[in-house]
Amino acid sequence: MPLIAHAWIVAPLLLVAGALIGATGIGGVLVVPLLTTLGGIVAPQAIAASSLAFFLPALVALGPLRQRPELARRCLPLLAGALGGAVVGALVVRWLPVQVLLAGVTALVLLAGWRGLRPSAGASAASAPMLGAAPLTALGAVVGLGSALTGTGGPVLLLPLLMLLRQPLVFAVAAAQAVQLPVAISASTVHALAGRLDWRLALMCGLLLMIGSLAGQRAARRLPVAQLQRAVAVLLLATGGWFAVLILK
Question: Would the pTM of this model clear 0.90, i.e. be above it?
Fold first, then answer.
């Protein structure tokens, strides 16, 4: 197993990433940069490990969905699309320039964060028409593809897309957390068959993310929807700014 440099810094930050996943659906975007910049893990192994690590916090996200059957049913087309998209992304990750994809993700995340902070964003999201099964499946495929290419788990792509499409925040956050499951299953299977997956590294990251996710999920229950909307928007802007710095390096 590759040794993780600065583990005493990386481990607490992975707990923070997990808490952000549990509270807002976003946070997995931190994992690959943490493993590569601080942990000394090469990018292909970091992407493979993070892909499987998201499986455990995704299981945590299924808890609230079991209590809300209507949300679970709406998520099914998204999850089906993400399952196929992630397979394709994991297969071609070695040949496509990730920087180009990150540029697109950055623009999307910044736009969604800016829109989420607009005074009318909260009201307009609740009045938008609900997306049907076909658009949700296509959206899931796009998210699965992009997530497998970047090792980001799914929420950092899906959440801003659903916010831009003015879907209800409760559904957007729940779907963003749940989409990690098919992405983790598909992408990590392909990485394992290709010999890029370090199981012990993935398990360590997954456990830390799961513990943090449980704590973040509990904290989010105490926040009103409007406050959660602002928190998600600010986090999207911060994530987009960080991506912009990574691209310009």
Answer: no
